[in-house]
Design a protein that fits this description.
CATH class of the largest domain: Alpha Beta
Oligomer: single chain
Helix content: 40-55%
Largest sheet: 6 strands, mixed
Distance between the termini: 124 Å
Strand order of the largest sheet: 6-5-4-1-12-13
Shape: rod-shaped
Amino acid sequence: MNSQSIMQPNETPKAYRIRLYKNKELYGLSNIEIGKLCNEAFGVNWDESAHRKKTTNYIKGYNDAKSELGTADQQLQNIINENKRIVQEVKKEKQKLSDERVEYNRLLRDEARKESYSDMVKRIICTNTEPMDVQIHYSHISSATDLLCHLTDIHTGVEIDNWKNVFNQNILKDRIDKYTSDILNIRNQHNAENCYIVIGEILSGLIHNNLRLQNNMDLMEQFKYISELISAMLASLAGHFCNINVYITPGNHSRVVAKKEDSIDGENMDILLPFYLKARLQNIKNIHICDNTIEPEIAMFNIRGNNIFSAHGHKDNPANVVQNLTMMFGVKPQIVLLGHRHTNRMTTVYDTKVIESGCVSGTDQYAMSIRKSNRPEQTVSVLDENGLVCLYDIQLD
C-alpha cells in the first residue's frame, strides 16, 4: 500500500472512496483491498461490492449532471448569441430609421427651399412685369430656309476689364444689339422664313455661397436686366420672321448656389426665363416660348425635317454627345447645339453636325489664368430640308 491510498486529513470518507476506485490502477489496489480501506474509513463491515456500487452510481450521476449542465450552458450561450443578434438587428433598424428620417427632413428642406424660391420668383417676376405694348407688322414669307440662332454663355453680372476684353452691362447691351443686327442681315441674305433661338446660361452666377440670401435681389435684378434685353431682341426680330420659336437650355453658372453639391433641381435662373418672356411678350403672337417637355435640360425640336437637340454642354462631351443622345432618346439628331466651352466650333459625328457656340462675355480672368482667350462670339446656322446650309461665325466685339 502506498501513501496515496491513505485517507487524507481533510478528506471525507465518501471522497476517499471515490478517489480510490477512480485511481485503483494508479495505486495498484484490488477491489478487495479498496473495500477494506473503505470499511475502515466508514467504520462498517460491508462487502466490497457495496462500496463499488455506490461509487459507480455516484460517478454516473455526476457525469449525467455534468452533461446536462453542459447542455444548459450551450442553451444559455445560444440564447445570449440570439439576444446579441436581435440587439444588432434592432440597432440596424434604428439606424435605418434615423437615415430615413434624415433623408425625409432633407426632402422637406428641399421642398421648402423650392417653395420659398418659387414664391420669391413669382413675386419678383410678376410684380410690375407688364406686357410689351408694341405693334408688330410681319408678312407671311414663303421660303426654303430657316435660321437656328444660339445665344449662350451670356454671363450677365460679371464685370471684366483686362488687356484682352472689357465687359459690363452696357457692353452686354451693345453685343446683344450687334447679334440681333447680324441675325437680320443673315435673314435678308437667305430670305429665311422662321427663326429658332436657343438661349442658355444667362447669368454669371454667385461667387460665394454665403452671399446667396443677401444677393437674391441683386441676382433677380441681373435676371430682369438680361431678360429685358432678350425681350427687346425678340420683339425687334418678330417683324422679320413668320415665327420665332424660343428654347432654353439651363447652364451651370445660372444656379443660385455656388457649390453644385448644395444646389437642388429647379434653383436655376435660366429656367425662369420662359416665365418672364411669356409675360413680357404675350401680345406678340408670332413669338412662341417653347417648353422642354421630355428632358428639362435638353431642348428637342425639328426644323424642316431635321432633328435638333440642344444642351448647355457642361454634362456632355462633343465627341460622344451624338451617341449618348441617340441611345438615350432613340432618335438620331441631325444637329446638336452645345455651349459651355466658350468657343465657336463645328465637328461631324456620324453625319451629325455638333455645333458649339462661344460666350457673349468673352475672356475673363479665369480664362486668362489658364492661358486661354478668345473673342466674344456666337453662331447662326442656316437650315433647309437637307440640313445645314451654312454656319455663320458671329464676332460680337
